[in-house]
Design brief:
Elements (H helix, E strand, L loop, with lengths): L1 H15 L9 H23 L4 E9 L2 E11 L1 H9 L10 H26 L15 E5 L2 E4 L1
Antiparallel strand pairs: 1-2, 3-4
Length: 147
Amino acid sequence: MLSKIKNWFKKSESKVDPPTPKVKRAKQVKDDDEAKMRNLAKEAATAKGEPWVAIINVDIDPNNINTGAFELDWNVPFLKKLIRAGYHQNENDTDEIMVDRWFQTVCRNIALEVYEQQMADPSNRGADDIRPPLSRKPLGGGRSEIS
């Protein structure tokens, strides 16, 4: 009896309801909108001749959160600025190599700034400070030897 009722509902649904169209997932729609906005910003900057770079995606290894990758996008004025700043170091350098060299420099500078800020706090410096203490030896005539 139940199987007859199930079959009856299946038949009526197929006759009445048209097939449902495929709908994009919400995340995919959001990603599409972000890509459109990013492209508009890139085109606007390029039209003005201004350098433009953006992080498109960050991939983190789920098994090791200390490992990951950044996906960047840039325009030609940004590349020209990198070349003028010395990031084009040999003839075989591609655009990707120059941008990667620049991004490594940015990351290195951030790490150094954080380290310097931590070391500026006396409570963070202790016995584990690897710098040896400085000694001053007067040489006379207003000169000193520091070692």
